[in-house]
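Researcher: Re-running this chain for the archive, since the previous output was lost when a drive failed. Same request as before.
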Amino acid sequence: MFAYKCSVAGKFFQVYAKPSSRAEPRLGVTVNKRFVPRATARNYCKRLARETFRVNSRFFYGVDLVVRLRSDIAANATAQARTEILSLMRRVYQLCGDATDAAPKS
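Model: Regenerated structure tokens:
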């Protein structure tokens, strides 16, 4: 995934994408202990990314995404972080998600 080198970055997160032969999207989340030393804060960051992906996964068909934390998220910046994750996912999908043939037929 990281060798594919298709990514976009923001203040809090970096999102990698790779086209997949599977129709349903997949998500991976990495949070480094160096940036967020407390386990509860790391788990919160992962939950934030997973929930944002779960709610919007229908827009990311045919692509695998990996979300990597770049810096700690303060308690008052949660809404900003959620917005950033979604915008980065959409941007990387447009740039790297060459998944038009994997689109679900309706």
